[in-house]
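TICKET: design request
STATUS: open
ATTACHED STRUCTURE:
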């Protein structure tokens, strides 16, 4: 069983920065892609950023140039560095591990990010 634990959310003013972390249990972390999603009130969950096991990254258009996803396979941890935050970035952010072989998604409990104007 895989467990994902996010941390690093909080309240920040527009233009500020936060770094989210997601620590994964188990041995499958390093061979599977990791993603960050977010869900704002009244909206569907959306993909924010992803990183493959080899380190290739992709981003949702609205966060390109502001957010950076990275991973440390020695610590079983994925990060999301968020700079130049905007009020529209306010959401609950979820960490996701997609286990390729079994096609199973694992989710963290979510961490709240609130950006004030």
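STATUS: resolved
RESOLUTION: sequence designed for all positions
ATTACHED SEQUENCE:
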């Amino acid at each position: 069983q895989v467990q994902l634990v996010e941390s690093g959310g909080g309240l920040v003013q527009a233009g500020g920065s936060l770094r989210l972390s997601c620590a994964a249990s188990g041995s499958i972390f390093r061979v599977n892609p990791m993603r960050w999603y977010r869900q704002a009130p009244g909206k569907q969950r959306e993909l924010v950023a992803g990183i493959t096991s080899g380190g290739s990254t992709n981003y949702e258009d609205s966060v390109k140039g502001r957010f950076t996803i990275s991973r440390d396979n020695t610590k079983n941890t994925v990060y999301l560095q968020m700079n130049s935050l905007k009020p529209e970035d306010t959401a609950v952010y979820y960490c996701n591990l997609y286990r390729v072989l079994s096609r199973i998604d694992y989710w963290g409990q979510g961490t709240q990010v609130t950006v004030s104007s």
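CLOSING REMARK: The radius of gyration is 13 Å. The mean pLDDT is 95.
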